[in-house]
Write a structure and sequence with these properties.
globular; Ubiquitin-like (UB roll); 16-stranded antiparallel beta barrel; alpha+beta
């Protein structure tokens, strides 16, 4: 090797070693965070997305500053780097001590707090104050106070705390006293006004905002009217003019809407075209709700698009595009539709963000989600996850918004929840023709400590029975989809119709886990002791019941669920099988079987049909009978109109229950069209029977005899809590039955 080559090689090695040493010296070995008061070190690292053993650059510092500012947790941030140590210096935004309102007369403080994001113990942000003022003004505007003004001020306190004070000038209410519609012939003024959210004042709306003037609401009403006409075949409907004029010498408006209805159209030809091999266009076409010759309905078109998406998703086509191309034929007054199906661009979930939960921890929400970061975008999974979160009943509202990221094939999903009260205290009452009144009470917390755990205590009192029940449920034991529940209950019964009393104490334990996405099995075990004491006037049969027994029961519940929503189903079904075996110790041997099936149909936009069936059997084995107090009893909620346990086999005046039972219920569920009030209702027809008694002693009437009732069920989400009314009329019964024609219960949420 020549001297020149040797020197060149030597110089290269020196440069290389120097570069390696330089790179090593630029590696981050320690991350220091200064200025923290209430925010943890780990939280800062999580938001900053910085780790040790990474190569430092000025770009990293800039990204850290940007990410931390985006959290709105800090008012000042600086980043420095020296000797392999990156130092982050922050100044935390203050925490809010109190939020105060001045000048609000028409609105309660709690109503105003419900509208804002900056509440007590949250992090202060001046930009969020502006957003909260905007929300409060919108609240006042919706109630007709268009000139309302709000001036916020901030009071600085020690320990980096602030008070926020909102000074409010509410102004006068401007109302809509008259709504005039011109040009309508197909539908009456009454029919159109019924659709609108803007209402004229009435006695029922005297204390509400229903008659308040709100320009945004009127624009919304115009969209509702246009949609209504489109759903009834008027594809060319339009507004000629929309006028809001102040009535002279009053604080009220007249709304004048002039419309052009056009003519009614029918569905013409319907076709489905697809380039996807696994999708059969003819099968899809046959299952569409769109039928040639029927009156055109834009909602049916939208529903058909969703149906095709769901069908495609079931075949594994997550990324599809559906274009319902509509051709309006003015001569034939028909609308031809071609549903064009093609494979859409592949999109994946980049990030899942959860906002709005101040009490409920993130993981309680995340464990209900069927998708995660990196998964393929699936609309069905998103909608079903939304329903699952709703079904927790922890939130007033749940929204999942899709936000495109910088990458075209990625999007972020923002889950926005609005929390509500999850604790409740309930008081209930019932009345029967022969048994008088019953009082029930209970207290429960469905989201204990914000971890989704359920704690419930209930009790029931009457002249004949006292019942106490305490249960604790952990739905996700050890952060796995494994539900664990424990029960402790005590029951004392002294019916007037029998000559004995019974005292029972029991404990129970259950373990539930999924078999698939919608199917679940729960295993359970319970142990109870029962002491029965006969009176001096007891019959021979009643004296036979005297004594102490111990029952050891093991069982399972299998649930097969294909409902479209666990929250409020409108189609699909749920099938449940339950078996319990007593005899693993104790003094009783029996096998209990129960089957239930519930089916739902969407009859229309307003009505949901449901059929619910139950069947059960219980029989002893090994020369023993099932205890009389384990016999089946029906009535109450599963056969409305009859007192629970007061029908079926009877000895003298003693109801014994039976070895077999069934109940069939048919319902039509709907929301009552009462503005400003959240009232739902159901018309029901119940039929059932309980019969058979293996352990017969004496003259017991245990023949199969049918009972039936009709009635109405009302549920009102009132200001004081949920109120439930049941009014039932038994029209098939036996002379010995005890009816319960009217019952109600009321709850208070906290």
């Amino acid at each position: 090797m020549s001297m020149h080559k040797f020197l060149s090689l030597f110089a290269f090695c020196i440069c290389f070693l120097f570069s390696v040493h330089s790179l090593a010296s630029e590696t981050i070995k320690k991350i220091d965070v200064q200025g923290l008061q209430r925010i943890s070190y780990e939280t800062v690292l999580s938001y900053a997305e910085i780790k040790t053993d990474t190569l430092y650059s000025d770009r990293i510092s800039n990204e850290i500053i940007k990410r931390l500012y985006d959290t709105q947790l800090f008012s000042d941030i600086s980043v420095s780097y020296l000797n392999q140590v990156i130092t982050i210096i922050v100044k935390e935004n203050p925490t809010i001590n109190l939020v105060l309102f001045e000048g609000n007369k028409s609105k309660k403080d709690e109503d105003l707090v419900a509208e804002i994001k900056l509440v007590e113990r949250s992090v202060f942000s001046r930009s969020k104050i502006k957003e909260d003022v905007k929300r409060l003004l919108e609240l006042y505007q919706r109630s007709g106070r268009l000139s309302a003004s709000i001036n916020p001020s901030v009071e600085l306190l020690d320990n980096n705390r602030v008070n926020i004070i909102y000074s409010i000038d509410e102004s006068d209410v401007l109302r809509v006293s008259k709504i005039t519609i011109i040009g309508n012939t197909a539908f009456s003024d009454k029919e159109i006004k019924k659709i609108m959210s803007t209402k004229t004042p009435s006695l029922l709306r005297f204390w509400s905002s229903g008659g308040a003037y709100d320009p945004d609401r009127i624009e919304y009403d115009k969209e509702l009217i246009k949609e209504f006409y489109s759903e009834n075949g008027y594809v060319n409907f339009s507004f000629i003019s929309s006028i809001s004029q102040l009535i002279e010498n009053s604080n009220s408006f007249e709304i004048i809407l002039t419309v052009s209805e056009g003519v009614q159209y029918n569905f013409g030809s319907i076709d489905v075209l697809t380039k996807l091999e696994k999708l059969d266009s003819e099968i899809l076409k046959k299952n569409l709700s769109v039928n040639t010759g029927n009156i055109f309905n834009s909602k049916i078109v939208k529903d058909s698009v969703e149906f095709v998406k769901d069908s495609a998703s079931s075949y594994g086509f997550t990324f599809i595009e559906i274009d319902p191309k509509m051709t309006i034929n003015t001569e034939s007054k028909t609308v031809d539709i071609v549903f064009n199906i093609d494979e859409g661009p592949k999109v994946y979930v980049s990030r899942v963000n959860i906002n709005g939960n101040t009490r409920t921890i993130d993981k309680v929400i995340r464990r209900e989600i069927l998708f995660s970061e990196g998964d393929a975008y699936n609309k069905f999974s998103i909608n079903y996850s939304k329903d699952k979160i709703k079904s927790l009943n922890f939130f007033e509202s749940v929204e999942i918004n899709e936000v495109r990221s910088d990458d075209l094939d990625r999007l972020n999903l923002n889950i926005l929840v609005e929390e509500k009260s999850t604790g409740s205290a309930t008081i209930g009452a019932g009345y029967g023709d022969q048994n008088g009144s019953t009082l029930t009470a209970g207290i429960s917390e469905a989201n204990f400590l914000g971890k989704g755990q359920k704690v419930k205590f209930s009790t029931s009192f009457s002249s004949t029975q006292n019942l106490y029940d305490l249960s604790i449920t952990e739905p996700y034991f050890n952060d796995k989809d494994l539900s664990v529940r424990g029960d402790l209950y005590s029951k004392f019964s002294d019916p007037e119709s029998v000559n004995y009393d019974t005292e029972t104490i029991g404990v129970g334990f259950s373990l539930g886990f999924p078999l698939s996405a919608n199917n679940r099995i729960t295993t359970k075990y319970s142990l109870l002791t029962s002491k029965t004491t006969a009176d001096v006037d007891a019959t021979a049969y009643e004296k036979l019941l005297s004594g102490t027994s111990t029952i050891s029961i093991a069982g399972y519940v299998l649930s097969l669920d294909n409902r479209n929503s666990p929250y409020k189903p409108s189609k699909g079904s749920i099938f449940t099988i339950e078996q319990n075996l007593a005899g693993l110790g104790g003094t009783s041997n029996y096998l209990e079987n129960k089957i239930s099936y519930k089916k739902y149909w969407k009859l229309s936009d307003q009505f949901i049909g449901a059929v619910k069936t139950q069947f059960g059997s219980i029989n002893g084995y090994g020369g023993k009978y099932a205890p009389v107090d384990k016999m089946f009893n029906i009535g109450g909620k599963n056969l409305r109109g009859f007192k629970y346990g007061k029908i079926g086999p009877i000895l003298s005046t003693s109801f014994t229950g039976g070895n077999y039972y069934y109940v069939l219920a048919a319902e039509t569920n709907f929301d009552l069209p009462i503005d400003e009030y959240d009232i739902s209702s159901a018309l029901f027809f119940d039929v059932g029977s309980v019969w058979g008694l293996d352990n017969r002693y004496g003259n017991i009437d245990d023949e199969h005899k049918l009972r039936a009732s009709i009635g109405i069920n009302l549920n009102w989400d009132s200001a004081v809590g949920p109120i439930n009314f049941i009014l039932a009329e038994p029209f098939m019964s036996e002379p010995t039955d005890i009816t319960d024609k009217f019952s109600f219960d009321i709850g208070y949420n906290f």
